[in-house]
Amino acid sequence: MSKTHEGSPQPLTAVKSKPLSGQVTLPGDKSISHRAMIFGLLSVGETHVTGLLEGDDVLRTAEACRALGATIDRIGDGEWRIHGVGIGGLRTPKDVLDFGNAGTGSRLMMGVVGGHPIEATFDGDASLRKRPMRRILDPLAEMGVEVVSQAEGGRCPITIRGVKDPLPITYQTPVASAQIKSAILLAALNSPGRTTVIETEATRDHTEKMLTYFGATVRVTPEGHDGRRIELEGRPELKPRPIIVPRDPSSAAFPLVAALLVPGSDILIKGVMMNPLRTGLLTTLLEMGASIEIQNTRYEGGEDVADLRVKASTLKGVDVPAARAPSMIDEYPILAVAAAFAKGETRMRGLNELRVKESDRLQAVADGLAEAGVTYAIEGDDLIVSGMNGAVRGGGTVKTHLDHRIAMSFLVMGMATDKPMTVDDERMIATSFPSFTNLMRALGAEFRA
Ligand code: S3P
Questions:
Q1: Which of 8, 57, 132, 166 is 20 to 30 Å apart from 430, CA to CA?
Q2: Cβ distance 36 to 68 under 8 Å?
Q3: What pLDDT shows up at residue 2?
Q4: What is the pTM of this model?
Q5: For 176-180, what is the mean pLDDT?
Q6: Which CATH fold would you assign to the domain 12-28+246-448?
Q7: Residue extents of the structural domains in the chain
Q8: Which of 37, 131, 136, 179 is the best mutation target for the ligand 1 pocket, counting ligand atoms within 8 Å of the beta carbon and taking the most?
Q9: Given this model, what pLDDT does residue 1 score?
Q10: Is there a common fold for 12-28+246-448 and 30-244?
Q11: Is 330 a catalytic residue?
């Protein structure tokens, strides 16, 4: 068991903050950190990683990669060395692969295992055990993977038996999900042919980019209005390449919104990844009138990055189109917090996928807003927040349901509300952003245990 799951819940309270100031250096991107481990495992030789997110979720993926045969060493702060076994070289793990809270790690690794003639059991914490896995098992079954056992409704614990020659398939993902796309592509690496994934809305493309970077042949073409078609030739020989992990825009969201909401704040967030499939929150906040200057735009580690200078701002409510959801899927909780302080109504459309994240995030956000005295409505898959024009009462305790982003969002809210806000458990923050409380305190936040 890692620290996130040890002992009893740890409540934390945020009180109204003085103006925030200073520079922020964020941890590495979670999506790319998971993939760095996996690509290290699937190439023969040494993959050197710098800037890895050393959060619990990624460490679970590293453990799983070790159990499947990789030798993995931490050689410095965020610096890791992976000796992989290559496509086709995985061994059967001795124990259950325990992914803790990590949906990404478990789902991507189901794809990896599915493309090998080995059997493995996937499990995790109470949150992961509630999350739907059929969306991964269905396409894998088309490729020949056998589901040996599963909990009710296609949930963990799940045992699968992979195949030596996974069938090449053409698959249209039923929901916009980079995890489904990635699981299929990873299984297809060991397939004797071309696999095609079609997504009607483009989702984060880190897997495709890393496949190309490691030497696979991948063709990406537009599909319909917002979609993409991704074609992968099976059985490439992946060559280890150095990976520099850019800083996580989904983590940047928390100090960014805190600085917008706390009057008098002025901060600089350095080196944030600006992949356009991840910057939906930035687009939305700029539409709301946020003062965010995008400075020093550059290309690092295969991605666009920039520094963000953020000043406290008066925000106005906006209508966020459903088509933007894939590029800001993890940012709705913190956007809802920003919307609570805005002038006028914010409507966030098409949030059905929030129901199946680390918690039912739509409900968890709604309950937290209610606790803070903010009026909201849920209409179908839309969340409508009535902005309080800068003056939010706050107070009360928010239930986080083992969800790191709910915990961080409502701590940020408490930095700007009249009354302190408490989250019932801060332990899960370490899954994605272990330095969150220290980093926020260094900017001026006051958090009380
Ligand atoms: C992720 C994809 C998203 C996101 C998750 C990370 C990834 O999930 O919510 O935090 O790294 O591929 P879905 O693809 O299922 O929407």
A1: 132
A2: no
A3: 60
A4: 0.98
A5: 98
A6: UDP-n-acetylglucosamine1-carboxyvinyl-transferase; Chain (3.65.10)
A7: 12-28+246-448, 30-244
A8: 179
A9: 45
A10: yes
A11: yes
